[in-house]
């Protein structure tokens, strides 16, 4: 049975459970459940704090985990990213009152408050900057107002929390993060049960980002049309009853579907349809 760590709280937990559900796995019905077994799929899910997941996975007691890239790096655990999942996207940045600092070099001798001490201390050391780091559990934006630090380093998504605290980001982004699947460093990623789990999640990612497009076009326009809709392998082309016409079917990125439909129409394609993909194995 594959043992999988899933975030029990915070920004990662809802979207992670939704993705696992879409991938056909049972999920807990009640937010206090700590573990569930899904016997049909031969997996067991452990609901853990997102920050602890890489540590459990690195111990080898759990096979796989879903966490944030920033949390993995912050933990320093012996685990590696094997699949990015495209949700809980954020950047990790320094911020301060306007006019305090323009770049990391201005942090010398200052105090930085953060919940991600591992990332910040590592980044300061790599940059050769000598600054103190104070660890806070959350709501670090308030640390400056209350005099605990001159600078903070925190997760930024929309920037609303920083604006509300009267703070501004400065310097280069320290890192970009999103939800990821982690595995113990050096563990056999080719293991069939692990591969099957990853294929299911990849299927969800593809179903979310692609649509199926069907259209009819004249044989003379086929090469131009196929250049617009190359598909993943190659489009399916079938003859129509009307001679000189073909039907084409290909997967296209959902974000580009409307533009591609306009372009196909302008080269003479007709009966252009898109349909959602519910599940897929590439
Ligand atoms: N506002 C946000 N937008 C996108 N991702 C976020 C946001 N806040 C946190 N994250 C991401 O979520 C992960 C942190 O999860 P965690 O549950 O520890 O914190 P949280 O979502 O801030 O929840 P809480 O602080 O309430 O416990 C990190 O990978 C981080 O990048
Ligand atoms: O750029 P934004 O869209 O405002 O999002 C970023 C904020 O979201 C998270 O905070 P959360 O609400 O989880 O509170 P916390 O600081 O206690 O973790 C994060 O720590 C930032 O404060
Ligand atoms: Mg938070």
UniProtKB/TrEMBL annotation:
It is an enzyme of class 2 (transferase). GO terms for biological process: L-histidine biosynthetic process. Residues 207-278 form the Histidine biosynthesis HisG C-terminal domain. One of its GO terms (molecular function) is magnesium ion binding. InterPro entries: ATP-PRT_HisG_long, ATP_PRibTrfase_cat, ATP_PRibTrfase_HisG, HisG_C, N-reg_PII-like_a/b, N-reg_PII/ATP_PRibTrfase_C. It catalyses: 1-(5-phospho-beta-D-ribosyl)-ATP + diphosphate = 5-phospho-alpha-D-ribose 1-diphosphate + ATP. It is found in: Cytoplasm. Keywords: Amino-acid biosynthesis, ATP-binding, Cytoplasm, Glycosyltransferase, Histidine biosynthesis, Magnesium, Metal-binding, Nucleotide-binding, Transferase. The keyword Isomerase does not apply. Pathway: Amino-acid biosynthesis; L-histidine biosynthesis; L-histidine from 5-phospho-alpha-D-ribose 1-diphosphate: step 1/9. Its EC number is 2.4.2.17. Residues 49-203 form the ATP phosphoribosyltransferase catalytic domain. Its cofactor is Mg(2+). It comes from the Bacteria. Belongs to the ATP phosphoribosyltransferase family. Long subfamily. HAMAP family: HisG_Long. This is ATP phosphoribosyltransferase. It comes from Streptomyces echinatus. The gene is hisG.
């Amino acid at each position: 049975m594959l043992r999988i760590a899933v975030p029990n709280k915070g920004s990662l937990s809802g979207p992670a459970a939704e993705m696992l559900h879409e991938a056909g796995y049972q999920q807990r019905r009640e937010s206090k459940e700590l573990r569930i077994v899904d016997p049909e799929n031969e997996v067991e899910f452990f609901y853990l704090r997102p920050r602890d997941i890489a540590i459990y996975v690195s111990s080898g007691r759990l096979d796989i985990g879903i966490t944030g890239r920033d949390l993995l790096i912050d933990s320093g655990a012996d685990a590696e990213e094997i699949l990015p999942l495209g949700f809980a996207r954020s950047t990790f940045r320094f911020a301060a009152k306007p006019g305090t600092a323009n770049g990391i070099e201005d942090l010398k001798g200052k105090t930085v408050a953060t919940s991600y001490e591992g990332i910040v201390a590592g980044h300061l050391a790599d940059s050769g900057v000598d600054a103190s780091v104070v660890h806070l559990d959350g709501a670090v934006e308030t640390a400056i107002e209350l005099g605990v630090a001159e600078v903070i380093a925190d997760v930024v998504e929309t920037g609303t929390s920083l604006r509300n605290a009267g703070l501004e980001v400065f310097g280069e982004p320290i890192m970009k993060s999103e939800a990821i699947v982690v595995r113990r460093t050096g563990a056999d990623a080719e293991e069939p049960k692990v591969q099957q789990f990853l294929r299911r999640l990849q299927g969800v990612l593809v179903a979310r980002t692609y649509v199926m497009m069907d259209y009819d076009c004249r044989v003379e326009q086929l090469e131009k049309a196929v250049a617009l809709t190359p598909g993943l392998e190659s489009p399916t082309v079938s003859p129509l009853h009307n001679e000189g016409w073909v039907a084409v079917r290909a997967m296209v990125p959902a974000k580009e579907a409307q533009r591609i439909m306009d372009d196909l129409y302008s080269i003479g394609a007709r009966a252009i349809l898109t349909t959602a993909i519910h599940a897929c194995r590439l």
